[in-house]
Amino acid sequence: MSIETPEELAALRAAGRVVAEAIRAMRTRVRPGVTTRELDEIAAGVFAGAGARPGPQLDYGFPGTTCISVNDEAVHGIPGKRRLRDGDLVKLDVTAELRGYYADACVSVTVGNASDATRKLAAASREALNCALETARAGTALNAIGYAVQQSVSSHGYSVCPDLMGHGIGRRIHEPPNVPNYHHPRFGQPLTEGLVITIEPILAAGSGAVRDAGDGWTLKTRDGSYAAHAEHTIVITDGAPIILTA
Ligand code: MF3
Ligand code: CO
Ligand code: CO
To answer: For ligand 1, what atom is nearest to the CA of residue 95?
Structure first.
């Protein structure tokens, strides 16, 4: 969606706050031995307290409040009885709907004493997101976002997962336009003031190709390499974007 009124901005900010709050609460509980379901229940508690609903369940019938993906799982992992282990890389991807408005964010968190390689991959997802946020303003071409992500990711020797991209958001989780994580020549249209999108680099230590894990939801890297993901929901302005999920 594109924001037309101050009320819409306020409503999106409120949804974004719920997402940020849920992620904060979840990440403090990340440690060896915790199950992904326990983390999901933390988010469910935050949502219930705020009167928010889980976007993935609402829009797609996803079996969980949040998507929790571990190690070689890139996106859409189903929370369950899996226990996190020392050295794991967990992605907490949270989408809330509050009074008809959606916000979406993700962080990659290392568990316990993770290797340098794992920590660096997580840090690269944050760096790619930050690089892309710096380019995202009214008048800039949409594909400048993907260009920035890809430059940042490849500077560390990692690959973006080309099948997975950011998106418009607001009244649904996924709205036009797609926001690829690589320079796509057909996405040269200018970003416009008020446009609400996610930026979400999804990268892998290996090739970036993904496949279905077999549960109908989870996408894993084909080569088994670890994946990292960082995401914010933003509003495009004449200057720096408004980060709704900070
Ligand atoms: N949070 C995901 C995204 O960033 C959307 C998950 S919806 C699901 O696009 F149903 F596919 F899980
Ligand atoms: Co998300
Ligand atoms: Co998203």
So the answer is: 1
